[in-house]
Amino acid sequence: MFRRTFLSAAAAIALTLPVQAKAADIVDTAVSAGSFTTLVAAVQAAGLVDTLKGDGPFTVFAPTDEAFAALPEGTVETLLLPENKDQLVAILTYHVVPAKVMSGDIAGKRAKVLTVQGDRLSVNGKNGVKVNGAKVVQADIEASNGVIHVVDAVILPE
Asked: Would you say 148 and 56 are in contact if contact means Cβ atoms under 8 Å apart?
């Protein structure tokens, strides 16, 4: 009797506990945010979806649609052409660090961080956070395979 009562109570408690949904990966998080349609289209055109859905961890400095719109007219359309895929990949992977870097890790510091593209980004966390001059406008959007920091400009390799 005790065993049956205990099992019934345990089952009732288990049914009332909230179910923890699995966190979305970097790509799905960007898609669901709704403000990265240009970035997502570029990631798809560059063939980087599977990479950014991989295990990671990754830190992505994600330009908003407004950041892409601020580029000279025709830039995005030109980069999305198949013959410019290598250049697009270089620009996009310049926004990705192969580690999970939260804003607290850089607060009050300056660092040069290695990107997936192979060059280094200059990150300045002394007064807010800037990445090669682009301002982080929203930090620490966690994903299952890393973190996204929203930036107000497209960061171009030097």
From this structure: no
Of 112, 93, 85, 91, nearest to 101 by C-alpha is 112
Nearby residues of 153 by Cβ (< 8 Å), 6 or more positions away? 63, 67, 70, 133, 134, 135
pLDDT at 10: 38
In sequence order, the 6+-apart residues with CB closer than 8 A to the CB of 47 are: 85, 89
Predicted confidence at residue 19, as pLDDT, reads 39
Phi, psi values for residue 138, rounded to 5°: -150, 125
Burial class (CB in 10 A: 0-12, 13-18, 19+), 122: middle
Q: What is the pTM of this model?
A: 0.84
Give the type of residue at 136.
Answer: V
Q: What is the pLDDT of residues 63-93, one digit of tens each?
A: 999 999 999 999 999 999 999 999 999 999 9
Angle, helix 85-93 to helix 37-45, in steps of 10 degrees: 130
